[in-house]
Amino acid sequence: MSRVAVFGGSFNPIHYGHLLVADEVRERLGLDRVLFIPAAVPPHKSPRGLAPAAHRYQMVRLATAGNPAFAVSDMELHRSGPSYTVDTLEALRAASSDELYLVLGSETFLDLLSWRDPPRIARLARLVVVPRAGSDFDTEHIQAQKVLREINENGFAPAANPVPADGVLVAEATSLPLAASELRRRARDGRSLAYRMPDAVIAYIRANGLYSVDPGS
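The structure corresponding to this sequence follows.
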């Protein structure tokens, strides 16, 4: 049985911040691989400025190529309707006996109760919370504690190898101060994307004219 980190998101576009977090979480927990899953229709994001799912999937493939511990799934691209995480985890569970770890940013974790069936998500995968760069994720905060209660978890535990037996894991992984929204603006304005994402992704964005139009126009 493999231990797999599930890393979902819009990846609009994928950048070095995503890749660094994925690598550090895998190493910190001693996991076998990280499975990147681009969302076809992100339920909590506006479609404005969202590159077509097929392009985002290809960018993730290019970004992760060459790392044998990274894999990419297009499973959400083949499912109609919003890309609900609980449905994805159910499908992964049905397909294999892998032990699943769901990687979430700290802001996403605090918003988890707006997702479809949060308690089921927590039963299907061990939650791994990664605090955002520059943020102070307070595990005792009222909202953090409310999420814990609603998903039937008793507390938080530091991400480590061996993995603690109980609790939502908190991985103090290096988080680069990169924002996909800023990278989209740079692409639209013809500014440099170097040192922010792999060269193959930059070339793909330029070749396909992604983010070249102001979504507000």
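The radius of gyration is 17 Å.
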